[in-house]
Amino acid sequence: MSQQPMRPHQRLSGLALRPDRQHPNNTPQPSCREQLVCGDRSAKRMIGFALVQACTLGSILLGLAAILFAANGGLTEARGCLLGCIALDGLDGSLARKFGVSTPFGAQMDSLADMASFGIATPLVTYYWLADRGPAWLVAGACIAMALAAAVRLARFNVTPYNSTWFQGLPTTIAALILIGSSLAVPRLGFVPAMILILACTAAMVSSLPYPKLNQMLRIRTWLLSLVGIGAIISMPTVFVAVIGTFLLSGPLLALRYRLAPDDADALPE
């Protein structure tokens, strides 16, 4: 007699009863992905976990506030909220590492917060910034493309192996910083340059170009950092444009460098 094929729910039941997935009392043991906090649940770690999630949720709330401010003409307040989102995005990761509470749940929450703040709120604030400077339909199209690019960038980040040296594509946080910073540093930025900047950030987010992480940027020589600081005192808009232009171009330049010298490309994202 031939054996009847197992139905999907029977196969899942069989997996749940495997000895290596059970506690000694035969209760199925949840994996780390099924828990909010993995490992030790001491008071210190639980407080750290709560602080991390508070930062993440705070970023979402600030993103929503930015949308409301921008819709009611408060562009300055909206930009301030988005800068707060950027700060909280960096803080939650630092706290997670400090308290040892980096978890799959936290990673998913962080991506959702990034999508809310940098994939939705930032394009909308950018739209309200530029809609009265040129064709509204053109601005809307560029901002929609930016939102879609952010979604693709974040989804790809979630399934890409970790690389401690490079980002694969421009991070959504940095794209938001470039756009919000540009609107603050160069308030009278022309419509065409602003649109070019939006499209450049959009293309860079969905690209596979390597962009340096903070630990790589800190290797910049002290004299060069001093030069940037002096330039910022003299003319902040000029220095800001030069810095973001250099950073955006660093991706294509690094890719070209390692294409010409493939033996040095081991650390680059694939």
From TrEMBL:
One of its GO terms (molecular function) is phosphotransferase activity, for other substituted phosphate groups. The chain crosses the membrane at residues 46-70, 136-154, 166-185, 191-211, 223-249. Coiled coil: none annotated. InterPro entries: CDP-OH_P_trans, CDP-OH_PTrfase_TM_dom, CDP_ALCOHOL_P_TRANSF_CS. Keywords: Membrane, Transferase, Transmembrane, Transmembrane helix. It comes from the Bacteria. The lineage of its organism: Bacteria, Bacillati, Actinomycetota, Actinomycetes, Propionibacteriales. GO terms for biological process: phospholipid biosynthetic process. Belongs to the CDP-alcohol phosphatidyltransferase class-I family. One of its GO terms (cellular component) is membrane. This is CDP-alcohol phosphatidyltransferase. Residues 1-33 are annotated as: Disordered.
